[in-house]
Specification:
The chain folds into two domains: 107 residues; 92 residues, Translation Initiation Factor IF3 (2-Layer Sandwich). It has 202 residues and is an alpha/beta fold. Helix content is 23%, strand content 23%.
């Protein structure tokens, strides 16, 4: 196929001449090549991170926006085996219009303890629970007050955690969580404590 007719662009490290306006599918095989890549593809809506990628822990996923608009991505394919779960959540926070997510769960299946430091909305915590539902034992999350009840309700109904920690340091989270659990009978035989302004539930 002539390069000007390409709709799928694969980034290895070298630049290939092509009509950037025709590209709607962008695939990254070498994460280090992003820093030196100078092109920009304005119409990409499908992104693949290939299984050859070894994503550094401190890699800034926002760097992708220099090449493509992450907000335009509607299909995200994660075939890289070395992507941390927090990096997946970070990537999803940038790709806010994703409708289809495809991923390899080889590493996710071994995760039991999850900590999400940044404040998270309900849609993202639903994804977290659904991805790790069968094996997650403890979850530490940081919540907005407006999302407190909806997220705690979802977690307690859909998961089987041994420990839930709400790390947002606010004393006024304790009573609403306790009232929610008791009034809706979400769980029984539980213990809830406020320790260093964090709510612990087990």
């Amino acid at each position: 196929m002539n390069s000007s007719q390409r709709k799928h662009y694969i980034l290895y490290g070298q630049t290939i001449e092509t009509n950037v306006n025709l590209i709607n599918y962008f695939e990254i095989k070498n994460i280090n090549s992003i820093e030196n890549f100078l092109g920009y593809f304005p119409n990409v809506n499908k992104l693949t991170l290939s299984n050859t990628i070894d994503m550094p822990r401190n890699f800034i996923l926002h760097s992708f926006n220099r090449i493509i608009s992450l907000k335009q991505i509607t299909k995200l394919i994660l075939h890289c085996h070395h992507l941390l779960f927090e990096q997946i959540l970070q990537l999803l926070s940038y790709t806010i219009n994703v409708q289809t997510l495809e991923f390899d769960s080889l590493l996710l299946n071994r995760i039991k303890n999850v900590t999400i430091r940044k404040e998270i909305i309900l849609d993202k915590i639903k994804l977290c629970i659904l991805l790790l539902l069968s094996q997650m034992e403890s979850l530490t999350i940081n919540l907005h007050k407006i999302d407190l009840e909806s997220i705690v309700r979802f977690i307690l109904r859909e998961s089987n955690l041994s420990l839930l920690c709400i790390s947002k340091q606010r004393r006024d989270f304790f009573e609403p969580v306790k009232y929610l659990i008791d009034s809706e009978e979400l769980i029984r035989n539980y213990t809830i404590e406020l320790i260093n302004r964090k709510v612990y539930l087990w």
